[in-house]
Write a structure and sequence with these properties.
The chain is mainly alpha-helical and 119 residues long. The protein is 78% helix and 8% strand.
Length: 119
């Protein structure tokens, strides 16, 4: 008689586990959809940052092509109130080299993020 009672109780537990499991799977699907939407928004931000870096790299490349290296002046502005001017061609060349290197590095890093990103 004890075995018969166990046989009746065991299927009920299995059914309850199946119902719970189905609810968890349904909740995971809803959460997954929300996560994917958030990840899509994050991807959009990454693509905008990447495009901004591409645009700035193109601007810098055009600037370097137009630079004759003779009469350059580099001007740093901070908040519109403070400024700093450099007219030494070797200093300007070093600044442009550093800017090119840093921008290229940021662009490569941003491209890698986009390629490895999964929604």
């Amino acid at each position: 008689m004890t075995q018969a009672t166990k046989a009746v109780i065991a299927p009920e537990k299995v059914e309850q586990k199946n119902v719970t499991t189905l609810k968890v799977v349904t909740n995971e699907k809803i959460q997954s959809a929300m996560d994917r939407i958030k990840r899509a928004e994050q991807f959009d931000i990454l693509t905008k940052r990447y495009q901004h870096l591409v645009d700035k790299k193109e601007e810098l490349d055009k600037f370097l092509l137009a630079d004759d290296g003779l009469q350059g002046i580099t001007l740093f502005l901070e908040g519109g109130n403070k400024s700093f001017e450099v007219s030494n061609t070797s200093v300007i060349k070093e600044l442009l080299t550093t800017a090119t290197t840093k921008l290229t590095s940021l662009l490569a890093s941003s491209e890698k993020e986009i390629l490895e990103f999964s929604i």
